[in-house]
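Let's study a protein:

___
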Amino acid sequence: MTQDPYLEPDFHPVAEIPETTVFVPGTSIEFVHPWRKRRPPEHVLFDFDGTLSLIREGWPEVMVPMMVEILSEAGAPESPEELQEYCYDFVMQLNGKQTIYQMIRLAEEVRRRGGTPLDPLTYKRIYHERLMERIAERREGLRSGKIPREQMLVPFALEFLEALQQIGCRLYLASGTDEIYVREEAALLGLDRYFGNEIHGAVDEYRTFSKAAVIERILRSHQVPGDSLVGFGDGYVEIQNVKAVGGLAVAAATDERNRSGRPDPWKRERLIRAGADLVIPDYRDWEKLIELIWRNP
């Protein structure tokens, strides 16, 4: 852990992509390197967007054009195509951190080009307004029942969460998305019944929240070692935070758009480089995961 539990450092690779990995026979569960269980983990941490929820699938298609527009208005010398590539690169490099960090970077880029940036919180609010327009139909469809919950969930997420609850695990949700939206969307997806009050997300005073701080509180309040924790996520932050305390880090390399059951290659590579122990494309092999992580001696 860092000295400051609220610090969210930028991505830095801590592992190489191995030449060979091992798949559990008959499944899509990929062991990046050997793992020896000391005890069944009691505490399970999940990221939200892309790890459980698909409501916000396609969010870069909102954030990046917004940034291109703002930088162009600030007098950027680059062409829109060049800005698109540049912004997409740094947006994805910061993916997994709180949204505000991408907006802080946007403000820095405006300043670098001679413009006067708005407050990063203002940029975040503009982004959220545009994103909510994009996903309004999804949210309303879930609210009215026109869209089945399963359509907006990573495949087999509900089955896995139900099984974890049945075997007595304590479940936690920690997201870089604003907590008010995470709570709303978790309820729309029927996930609130699994997490209760343990749903945590970003706040405007962003220095008062981090996934690392959530992990620290879990371990401290229950007086358990880090290997009592397993984390599932599609962002580098939760992978590195879980690994930092000695927990088991499972990369959810989800194919959000197609729900294909195959790992997203970019996510897989990035999360392995972040130190992930296992890689899964979704939760279709949840029964085997339960057996491997919780039931085998």
